[in-house]
């Protein structure tokens, strides 16, 4: 114990001389004067901000309607929105949508969980040990350059055509960004704070838990979100190639029967679910970051 | 009685001027200083003359130097809770609020949870931030952040406290008050304090001795004994004479 002052805890005397200390008056609290913002103005600008994200999708939808109306493309190639909507409701009513979405979700959840855990462990191991990093990182960087589809023939032989194949390929897709971002978090650890930690006698683990990881939250979340996006994208690819259910399968099936309404409906569902989950990550990150703002700002 | 004498024996420090290059920048050259237990040392000197570097060495953050640093006659080995610091750049944790930032220094302290909480509160009150206990670093001003850093440096009650321009960002009134507090705590706790400052008045007001450093390479130019009774009176003629003496050193340097 490197504490020169050997004061037993029970003999603890407060550091500050009681009573005769002239304390500073409290710092002024926040100003109370509020600036009046004209009401109507605030309202309309708030509404405008909320509407912004919808403008582009609505415009595309409008273009779609218009295109069908004007007959720019034949109905077989570009089914009218109403038709796609009908197909979607049919899928929903018959339960097919749920069966396929559930199959896809299960694959992505299992694959993502697998990839994320291995990725975090790999990233942690490389972050904690320079030796491990030197051994692994170059090989890792080489392997990740190979796309999912290129692995497929080999993976097919190794894992067969069943579920494990899908889990492994999805896991691999998620693993890459998550490993790299976890490692990045260690490389970016704030040096000044690490030094402060050393001054307070932090052990290696304390430094990791109290400094490296909290500082890494934004980077780790970027990794998780990227990893999920990659997993979701490769899910569809994997299902396109080898499956008899799932959203990707719906797309293949629709294409084979030239039912582009079915393809479109499946695409809408894939995009919708992906977006929802991404929002979920965003929400979780903001909850974790509550109170603090990131050191980064936004150019305005 | 604490035995916290500090001896700096022939300290020299070089930095590679560029990573990988062989040419070196000599930042400290043969620093010699014996600091008695419970002494208050002020260090002044031009920007870049190696004051922060010297404090880093004493704290044990950087072990690549020539010479020896002895604490109670024993060479220091890395950092230790008996040596505390207030960094020049605060180094608050952005994800912790004021109270948690001060408590960080007590992570490895033997105090009970309640004692920790109480002493953290007391030190936050000492620097006048009791209304900002829940505020995060980005919500407080630079001077307030500096006060949080001071509270964090004191809370652990190190027997040697290194202060790197701790009052630089404060208004004159707050600064004068905190100088008084530092002196009170120093007198009560008998801790050894090493204060780096650009404020010659502050150096003379607080120091038993004032060490004047000069740059290129950083070395000790002169050591002045401040043989005035405490608390010191800034308008005392001897105080003014000593202060002008130190200031004249600066004038010659520039
Ligand atoms: N890690 C480093 N690598 C290379 N050079 C360094 C490093 N740290 C400090 N220096 C150099 O050492 C010299 C002294 O720096 P230091 O921070 O100790 O000055 P200082 O006396 O504290 O200045 P100030 O009063 O402005 O805080 C400077 O010239 C600086 O460029
Ligand atoms: Mg400095």
From TrEMBL, chain B:
<dbReference type="InterPro" id="IPR003439">
    <property type="entry name" value="ABC_transporter-like_ATP-bd"/>
</dbReference>
<feature type="domain" description="ABC transporter">
    <location>
        <begin position="6"/>
        <end position="240"/>
    </location>
</feature>
<protein>
    <submittedName>
        <fullName>ABC transporter ATP-binding protein</fullName>
    </submittedName>
</protein>
<dbReference type="Pfam" id="PF00005">
    <property type="entry name" value="ABC_tran"/>
</dbReference>
<keyword id="KW-0547">Nucleotide-binding</keyword>
<dbReference type="InterPro" id="IPR050166">
    <property type="entry name" value="ABC_transporter_ATP-bind"/>
</dbReference>
<dbReference type="GO" id="GO:0005524">
    <property type="term" value="F:ATP binding"/>
</dbReference>
<keyword id="KW-0067">ATP-binding</keyword>
<dbReference type="InterPro" id="IPR017871">
    <property type="entry name" value="ABC_transporter-like_CS"/>
</dbReference>
<dbReference type="InterPro" id="IPR027417">
    <property type="entry name" value="P-loop_NTPase"/>
</dbReference>
<comment type="similarity">
    <text>Belongs to the ABC transporter superfamily.</text>
</comment>
<dbReference type="InterPro" id="IPR003593">
    <property type="entry name" value="AAA+_ATPase"/>
</dbReference>
<keyword id="KW-0813">Transport</keyword>
């Amino acid at each position: 114990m490197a504490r020169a002052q050997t004061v037993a805890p029970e003999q603890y005397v407060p550091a500050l001389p009681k009573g005769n200390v002239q304390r500073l008056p409290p710092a002024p609290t926040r100003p109370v004067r509020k600036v009046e913002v004209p009401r109507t103005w605030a309202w309309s600008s708030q509404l405008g901000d909320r509407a912004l994200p919808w403008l582009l999708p609505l415009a595309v939808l409008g273009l779609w309607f218009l295109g069908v109306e004007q007959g720019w493309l034949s109905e077989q190639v570009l089914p009218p929105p109403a038709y796609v909507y009908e197909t979607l409701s049919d899928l929903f009513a018959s339960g097919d949508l749920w069966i396929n979405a559930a199959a896809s979700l299960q694959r992505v959840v299992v694959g993502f969980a697998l990839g994320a855990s291995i990725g975090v462990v790999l990233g942690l191991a490389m972050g904690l040990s320079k030796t491990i990093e030197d051994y692994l990182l170059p090989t890792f960087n080489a392997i990740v350059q190979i796309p999912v589809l290129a692995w497929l023939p080999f993976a097919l032989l190794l894992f067969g055509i069943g579920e494990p194949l899908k889990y492994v390929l999805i896991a691999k897709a998620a693993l890459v960004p998550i490993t790299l971002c976890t490692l990045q978090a260690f490389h970016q650890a704030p040096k000044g704070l690490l030094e402060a930690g050393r001054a307070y006698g932090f052990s290696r683990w304390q430094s990791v838990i109290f400094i490296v990881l909290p500082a890494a939250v934004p980077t780790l979340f970027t990794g998780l979100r990227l990893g999920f996006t990659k997993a979701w994208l490769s899910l569809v690819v994997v299902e396109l190639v080898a499956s008899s259910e799932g959203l990707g399968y719906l797309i293949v099936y629709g294409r084979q029967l030239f039912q582009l309404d079915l393809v479109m409906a499946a695409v809408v569902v894939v995009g919708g679910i992906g977006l929802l989950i991404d929002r979920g990550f965003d929400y979780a990150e903001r909850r974790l970051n509550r109170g603090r703002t990131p050191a980064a700002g936004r150019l305005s | 009685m604490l035995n916290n004498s500090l001896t700096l024996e022939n300290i020299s420090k070089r930095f590679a001027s560029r990573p990988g290059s062989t040419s070196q920048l000599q930042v400290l050259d043969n620093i010699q200083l014996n600091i008695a237990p419970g002494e208050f040392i002020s260090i002044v000197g031009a920007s870049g003359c190696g004051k922060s570097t010297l404090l880093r060495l004493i704290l044990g953050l950087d072990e690549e130097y020539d010479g020896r640093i002895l604490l109670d006659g024993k060479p220091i080995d890395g950092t230790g809770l008996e040596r505390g610091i207030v960094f020049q750049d605060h180094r608050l944790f952005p994800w912790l609020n004021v109270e948690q930032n001060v408590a960080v220094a007590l992570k490895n302290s033997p105090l009970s949870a309640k004692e920790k909480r109480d002493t953290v509160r007391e030190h936050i009150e000492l620097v006048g931030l009791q209304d900002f206990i829940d505020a995060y670093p980005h919500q407080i001003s630079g001077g307030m952040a500096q006060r949080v850093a001071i509270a964090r440096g004191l809370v652990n009650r190190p027997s040697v406290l290194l202060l790197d321009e701790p009052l630089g960002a404060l208004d004159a009134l707050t600064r004068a008050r905190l100088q008084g507090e530092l002196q009170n705590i120093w007198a009560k706790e008998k801790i050894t304090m090493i204060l780096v400052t650009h404020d010659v008045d502050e150096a003379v007001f607080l120091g038993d001795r004032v060490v004047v450093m000069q740059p290129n390479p950083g070395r000790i130019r002169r050591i002045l004994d401040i043989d005035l009774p405490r608390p010191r009176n800034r308008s005392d003629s001897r105080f003014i004479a000593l202060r002008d003496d130190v200031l004249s050193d600066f004038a010659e340097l520039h």
